[in-house]
Amino acid sequence: MSLLEINVLVLAYLGDTVYENYVRRFLIQKGIGNVNDLQREAISYVSATKQAFYLQKMLDSDFLSSEEVDVVKRARNYKTTSHPKSCDIITYKYATGLEALIGYLELDGKRERIDEVMNFILGSVC
What we know:
It is a single chain. The chain has helices at residues 8-29, 35-46, 48-60, 66-76, 89-107, 111-123. With 126 residues, the chain is mainly α. It has one domain (3-123): Ribonuclease iii, N-terminal Endonuclease Domain, Chain A. The protein is globular, with a radius of gyration of 14 Å. The termini are far apart.
C-alpha cells in the first residue's frame, strides 16, 4: 500500500501523537518541571486553533513542498461533519491537515523534515 492510499484521518491519528511528543519534549527542555504547568502550556500548542495557525503560516511562506501541500489538501478536503466544540469546521480541517502531514512524513521515514516542520512551529513561538 502506497502512503498516498492511506486514509488521511489515519495519517492525522499518527501525526497527532508525533506532534504532541515534540511539543512535550520542547516544553520539558524549556525547564518546565510541574506536570500541571506542562499540561497548561501544551494546550497552547496542540489546540486545533493553534495547529491551523501554524499550518497557515507554513502555507503563506511557501515552506511546504508541493507533495506536502497535496497531503495537507487531501486531509483538509476530507469529507467530515464532526469537529470539536472549541473551533469551527474549517479550523479543524486545517489542524487535521497539519497532523496528516506529520503522520505522512513519519511513515515515509522523513524524520529530518519533521524536525524542520516542528522547528518552524516551535521557533515561531519562542
